[in-house]
Amino acid sequence: MAIDGKRRILVTGAAGMIGSAIVWRLNRLGYDRILVADKLDTSEKWRNLVPLRFLDYIDAGELMNTRHALTDISTVFHLGACSATTEKDSAFLMENNFEFTKKLAHWALEKNARFVYASSAATYGAREDDFREGLLLDSLRPLNMYGYSKHLFDQYAERAGMLDRLIGMKYFNVFGPNEDHKGDMRSVVHKAFHQIRSTGKLDLFKSHRPDFADGCQQRDFLYVKDAAAMTIRLAEVAPGGIYNLGSGKAHTWLDLAYAIFAALELEPKIEFIPMPEALRGKYQYRTCATIEKLRGAGYTEPITPLAASVADYVRNYLMRDQRLGDEAASAA
Fold first, then answer.
1. CA-CA 20 to 30 A from 74: which of 1, 127, 172, 311?
2. Active site amino acids
3. CA-based diameter of the chain, in Å?
4. Segments forming the whole domain that contains residue 161
5. Model confidence over 17-33: pLDDT tens digits?
6. Euclidean distance between the first and final Cα of the chain, in Å?
């Protein structure tokens, strides 16, 4: 069923990359009765909100205090979280990613609102194959506290008997417009664009395993526009549960690098540098989402090929310093 456009939609983390892409996509589908919640800081992520249409902004720190005033909500897209995989403050992650999600999920279910939340592919831990959603949650072993904070809510929702009434999304390697504020958590596409612009070359980690040549480590790269489309479609049609959101294809870092150079109309110049010792024991050499469950739930749209995604991102956003939604102003 379609999202009820006569009622209001709540999007948390709405100034972030995926959150703002969801608001952008909702706007394109004709929805603008949207409440956006986030915690604006000293970064420039406020710029992601400027081109978007919504009813009101709510500071994320006040959201639970004002929930009594949040009436007539049909759908909650909960993207708000600390997404830094390097964050070491466990108490902060537990409060922000776990406790807050619990409170909001219970509130949404009490209000009979659809609750769609961001889990993470980081919950799968070090595995390099068999990324099925049907794996026993208790068998997963996240590698960092960020992944564990996401995993813990998945486990809680299952044990509380809530999971079949929620939609949990395990995003793989999402990249695209509106990630400028993410610092070290920016995608390789964003980092590479600026490195190539300033130095003419791109650094990639050497492989430290004989079964993978340098640059042939693999990831499932997903364009943020596709991630937003998948998320909204799941909200409309999917049964409850956890879903992988990825392209379903594993590409090498070299595939990605060549696509970036092609988008810039430059000859590739790549240098391989040693991987830091601290990363070598935790580094995954291959990730790839299984997306049969996503397809079976009703997402039938073609997924944008990697080269086309990179070209759109580089040429229409990075080179122009534009955000999602700026397209309309550019065309006017």
1. 172
2. 146, 182
3. 58
4. 8-177+221-246+287-304+323-331
5. 999 999 999 999 999 99
6. 33
